[in-house]
Amino acid sequence: MLGLGNNIFKSSTAEGSLVSNRVSFIGLLNETYGADAEAAYSVRKLSSSATVAMTIRRESDNEELAIGFVDGNINEAAIEAHCTGTTCRVVQWNDQSGNDNHATQDSEGAQPTIYTGGALVKENGKVAVDFDGSSDNYLFFVGAIGISGADPRTYIAVLNPDVNANETVIQHGDNNVAQNMQHFILTTELGNRYYGSNNLFATSNTSQMLVFNPLIGDSAHDTEMYLDGTQLSYTSRGPDSTLNTADSYLSIGISNVGTLVNEYNGNMQEIIIYGSDKSGTDQTSIESNINTFYNIYS
Question: How many CB atoms lie within 10 A of CB 174?
Fold first, then answer.
């Protein structure tokens, strides 16, 4: 495995020979506009300090393997060598923010898939993680994530849903108390929900997409949704409602968790969570960085 990409440059010496020098990797989280994420999960390398993308398990003998990066991408060859002839599932998706908010799943039947049918799961040519939409198919982190109360936050996701059917993409809150959580959801439209209020936006999409969702204040009117770089309009929303301030507002779920239903069904490639409002110039730069890698929209 390589912790850094194999990018090099060559320069002429006084003797006219060529000397190769490794160029330090710079990822989205190393850029000023993309720094300070609370949690960041991806099939690409987001930070120069990240060495492991995820840990996978092959079903034939349950052997697990930590997968790193090659040239800024998840190490596809390592996955294929480990998984040929069987199915591989994700045990842990590593947080690249440096906060160690790794999203895990110990239950074998609830682990999402990354290799099946003799091939990597892919979306638009890039490796993806496939959530099947069944009960308890999710990855989960429990701990003191650095967002609470009415703090602003931004959720970013690269995904392709198989269907739009009231599915949770990201859950932030107590997994046992429905009113103590916030969701970025997919219904027949994009939306989010917190403290019981729904905020829906004008779109329905079942193709690869980049969703940018900043929540910038303490009322339901202070949430926005962007799809592939374009801001969406509200179609409906609940009453004004403050962001959750409960002490239990700690956990992060990729897909739905706990006692709730409506798990996500489809592929995911990147989830980034910031404890700040990233709309504005930071947003434009982040979206450009993501789109350059995944080639989602023109």
Answer: 19
Which residue in the block uniquely carries the two structure tokens 């638009």? Answer: 124
Provide the whole-model pTM: 0.86
Residue ranges covered by each domain of the chain: 32-294
- What DSSP state is assigned to residue 263? B
- pLDDT tens digits for range 252-293: 677 765 555 677 888 999 999 998 999 999 999 999 999 999
Token pair for 180: 């103590």
| Cα angle 198-204-207, degrees, rounded to a multiple of 5 | 125
Structural contact between residues 108 and 102, judged by C-beta atoms closer than 8 angstroms? no
Task: Name residue 11's beta-bridge partners.
Answer: 19
CATH 3.40.50.150 is right for the domain spanning 32-294: no
- What H or E segment, with its residue span, contains residue 91? strand 88-93
Q: What is the pLDDT of residues 146-197, one digit of tens each?
A: 776 667 889 899 999 887 766 778 776 654 444 444 667 777 788 877 655 6
Bridge-based pairing of strands 88-93 and 122-123 is: unpaired
3/25 Cα distance (integer angstroms): 9
Partners of residue 294 on adjacent β-strands: none
